[in-house]
Amino acid sequence: MNITSEQVLSALSNVEDPDLKKDLVSLNMIKDLVINGREINFTLELTTPACPMKDMLKNACINAVKHFVDADANINIQVTAKVTQSLNQSNLAEIKNIILVSSGKGGVGKSTVAGNLAVSLASNGAKVGILDADIYGPSIPMMFDLQDEKPGAKELENGKVVILPPEKYGVKVLSLGFFADPNQPVPWRGPMASSAIKQLFNDADWGALDYLIVDLPPGTGDIHITITQGYPIAGAVIVTTPQEIALADTRKGLLMFQMPGMNVPILGVVENMSYFTPPELPENKYYIFGKDGGKKLAETFNVPFLGEIPLMETITEGGDKGNPVALMPDSIQGKAFLDIAGKVAQQVAIRNAGE
Ligand SMILES: Nc1ncnc2c1ncn2[C@@H]1O[C@H](COP(=O)(O)OP(=O)(O)OP(=O)(O)O)[C@@H](O)[C@H]1O
């Protein structure tokens, strides 16, 4: 008996995406179904290339077809992704999702998380940009080994001149740091900083991006207002360290995003420097700053906890030398960032499906 498309699709309609709470057929994730005798080929189109459930969903499809259609079928599934889009406005129509990385306090590792998040998403195949909006200490150029970079510009056919973001590790990078002398402090006044940031958003040739990661300055200030009120934000990732003093400021940051005028969805909390782990004894974890502070905070605010990042010398070195640890996916530290990137992409997809 010939296997039909209807049979295969009916079998696959038993597989549910646990995040989106609908079956893969209704979600239109099954594409290009071709059947040759007992060979079944199709594409599974996910909502993000960083989907942490990629393998689980692929296996569930195979099991469903074998169970409901033919136990001996030869099933080939190609997994691709089409990143879904949060609400958008026309001048940034090519940017699907703007993700803010924020912290209540300085020095907790916000830029480290932003940079590694960008690299992790890009290494999964997503189109990614990073905009360093930290007026107090733009550290993204150093993290990407682009300190000496001076972005070029080009004139479009309509006469508009656009900034060309340099690309490194698959990520398009722009920073206020590119436009200031690194040896001179820049006393940005509120309006000046806001207009500089708007230029980096509006007058840059970002091209088509799945995710634009924005590294915000610490705290709550003008830049936060400029960005959250001027652009459609998919959500914010909140970075904290486990100490009570950092958590107290993180609470304020969270509350700011939840204020009615802002109303930025919280994608979740990342706890950085959660524990010290010596590279030679990676199974030993020393919770020197206290344990589970970030997790408890996420519970209190009823937002996702996205994961812990250990305190490791290699992370400091990676930042200083322009070699983000996310480039080493098999290391403990690289894996920590890749897992978090998967969870962030997952939260964005869930929110986009709910809009
Ligand atoms: N998990 C970690 N392990 C070791 N070092 C880390 C870790 N996270 C961050 N660092 C280091 O701590 C320093 C501060 O990190 P980072 O610049 O990311 O913080 P920040 O919150 O963005 O700071 P700022 O408020 O100045 O923008 C950097 O030298 C960075 O390499």
UniProtKB/TrEMBL annotation:
Ligand binding (ATP): G104, K105, G106, G107, V108, G109, K110, S111
GO MF entry, a single one: ATP binding
Gene3D superfamilies: Fe-S cluster assembly (FSCA) (3.30.300.130), P-loop containing nucleotide triphosphate hydrolases (3.40.50.300)
CDD domains documented for this protein: Mrp_NBP35
Keywords for this protein: ATP-binding, Hydrolase, Iron, Iron-sulfur, Metal-binding, Nucleotide-binding
PROSITE patterns: MRP (PS01215)
InterPro entries given in the database record: FSCA_dom_sf (IPR034904), MIP18-like (IPR002744), Mrp-like_CS (IPR000808), Mrp/NBP35_ATP-bd (IPR019591), NUBPL-like (IPR044304), P-loop_NTPase (IPR027417), YlxH/NBP35 (IPR033756)
Claim: Translocase is one of the keywords in the record: no
SUPFAM superfamilies: Fe-S cluster assembly (FSCA) domain-like (SSF117916), P-loop containing nucleoside triphosphate hydrolases (SSF52540)
Stretches assigned to the MIP18 family-like domain: 6-75
Pfam families the UniProt entry points to: FeS_assembly_P, ParA
Known role: Binds and transfers iron-sulfur (Fe-S) clusters to target apoproteins. Can hydrolyze ATP.
Quaternary structure and interacting proteins, as annotated: Homodimer.
Protein family (similarity comment): Belongs to the Mrp/NBP35 ATP-binding proteins family.
Annotated protein name in UniProt: Iron-sulfur cluster carrier protein
Organism: Pedobacter flavus
